[in-house]
From TrEMBL:
EC number per UniProt: 3.6.5.-
Top-tier EC class: hydrolase
Name of the protein: GTPase Obg
Biological function: An essential GTPase which binds GTP, GDP and possibly (p)ppGpp with moderate affinity, with high nucleotide exchange rates and a fairly low GTP hydrolysis rate. Plays a role in control of the cell cycle, stress response, ribosome biogenesis and in those bacteria that undergo differentiation, in morphogenesis control.
Underlying gene: obg
Domain OCT: 349-431
InterPro entries: G_OBG, GTP-bd, GTP-bd_Obg/CgtA, GTP-bd_prot_GTP1/OBG_C_sf, GTP1-OBG_CS, GTP1_OBG_dom, GTP1_OBG_dom_sf, OBG_GTPase
Domain OBG-type G: 161-331
Source organism phylogeny: Bacteria, Bacillati, Actinomycetota, Actinomycetes, Streptosporangiales
């Protein structure tokens, strides 16, 4: 079983709003107590929150379906239903949230404590007490709660470290991070021993920083070869890149200069990393031939403006100088940037019930009505209750839907779809259903629906 997951598809659903209650107050000696049905509770939200104690997306790999609680139904005596509990999902710092279907980036979660409402709970339905007015004094119906948001998102973790170690497979990056810190990654003498980034905490005097051991890169990594995209995204947030070069490799066509140029070409092709400072570590100096080769190529690398360190992860030679050099760069980078704070999210929710709607003539006998208000009203209507259906007809008439249908050429008996053509609500339109005919029948009925 994997113990590190940096990409996962999460299926989330916010809670549905509770239904409103249709109730009439009943009390001795008060035969006309009036409506007292309470409103339904709001459904719970699904919230992503950056948590310093979370380092992987493993929990969501094992349990990818998450749902918030529904709101409770309203009750008589003007008692409102309880709101559904929110579900807060902790994610690591540096998590990118994308739409699983389109790939659109929804939010980049950086900064401890940052919160983002990824799925909003549905609104609770109004009880009949809230629906009463001077003309409809005792409604025999209530509105249904609205469904909560449901969507699939992809969570993608980009490691947040100060220094990234990059290089070919088996260059000694895992051995180096094990020698510099308390991290204990898997170390073996074969390519791609490291398949997940390992993070280590390194101390250089008063500077404490993190180092990421990025899995080995090969030619073509920027195009995804050898899981290159999965590995390279962990480099994006690092402040500094350290090339770890194997000076003891016996592979044909490989030498320190060529290795450096190949990895640099892949980093350049991947993009977003041009401004990162670089240094070079010539590793495995404990091997005699490797030390000689390191002495030969040092001048060439320094002429390119690079700081070069000859080290041995096995004997710890040169590690102190390397550690303090990295610490000096990290301290300078931290001093130059503002203090990291939780991302300030400005929420601009849509206005509920925006008045815009559209009527489209599909054919001579079929018309489609789309718009936030009409579609929302359809979701709120209990179609088993005639009075509720009459109330919907009144709302649509006041909005101007009937007038627009007439302009579009609709006649009595024409089919009208409110919403999408696939799953919208279909009914036979009768223009005689208008707000001028006030219901005077028993509660729960509407005399216009005969």
């Amino acid at each position: 079983m994997a113990d590190f997951v940096d990409q996962v598809v999460l299926h989330i659903r916010a809670g549905d709003g509770g239904n409103g209650c249709a109730s009439v107050h009943r009390e001795k000696f008060k035969p006309l107590g009036g409506p007292d049905g309470g409103n339904g509770g709001r459904g719970g939200d699904v919230i992503l929150e950056v948590d310093p104690n979370t380092a992987t997306l493993l929990d969501y790999h094992r349990r990818p379906h998450r749902k918030a609680d529904n709101g409770k139904q309203g009750q008589g005596s003007n008692r409102e239903g309880a709101n559904g509990a929110d579900v807060v999902l902790p994610v690591p710092n540096g998590t990118v949230v994308k739409d699983a279907k389109t790939g659109e980036v929804l939010i980049d979660l950086v900064g401890m404590g940052t919160r983002y409402v990824i799925a909003q709970g549905g609104h609770g339905g109004l009880g009949n007490a809230a629906l009463a007015n001077s003309k409809r004094k005792a409604p025999g119906f209530a509105l249904l709660g609205e469904p909560g948001d449901a969507l699939d998102v992809m969570l993608e973790l980009k490691s947040v470290a100060d220094v990234a170690l990059v290089g070919f497979p088996s260059a000694g990056k895992s051995s180096l991070i094990a020698a510099l810190s308390a991290a204990r990654p898997k170390i073996a003498d074969y390519p791609f021993t490291t398949l997940i980034p390992n993070l280590g905490v390194v101390t250089a005097g008063e500077t404490v920083f993190t180092v990421a051991d990025v899995p080995g890169l090969i030619p073509g990594a920027s195009q995804g070869k050898g899981l290159g995209h999965e590995f390279l995204r962990h480099v994006e947030r690092c402040d500094m890149l350290v090339h770890v070069i194997d000076c003891a490799t016996m592979e044909p066509g490989r030498d320190p200069i060529t290795d450096y140029e190949v990895i640099e070409a892949e980093l350049h092709a991947y993009g977003k990393l041009e401004d990162r400072p670089r240094m070079v570590v010539l590793n495995k100096a404990d091997v005699p031939d490797a030390r000689e080769l390191a002495d030969i190529v040092r001048a060439d690398l320094q002429e390119r403006g690079l700081k070069v360190f000859t080290v041995s992860a096995a004997t710890h030679e040169g590690l102190r100088e390397l550690t303090f050099a990295m610490g000096e760069w990290v301290a300078a980078a931290r001093a130059a940037r503002p203090v990291e704070e939780p991302t300030r999210l400005v929420l601009r929710p849509k206005q509920l019930g925006a008045a815009t709607f559209a009527v489209r003539k599909v054919n001579d006998n079929l018309f489609q009505v789309t718009g936030e208000k009409p579609e929302r009203w359809i979701r709120q209507t209990d179609f088993t209750n005639d009075e509720a259906v009459g109330y919907l007809a009144d709302r649509l008439e006041r909005l101007g839907v009937e007038e627009e249908l007439v302009k579009a050429g609709a006649t009595a008996g024409a089919e009208v779809v409110i919403g999408s053509m696939d799953d919208g609500y279909i009914f036979d339109w009768q223009p005689t259903l208008n707000a001028e005919s006030i219901n005077s029948g028993p509660r729960g009925t509407d005399n216009r629906l005969g």
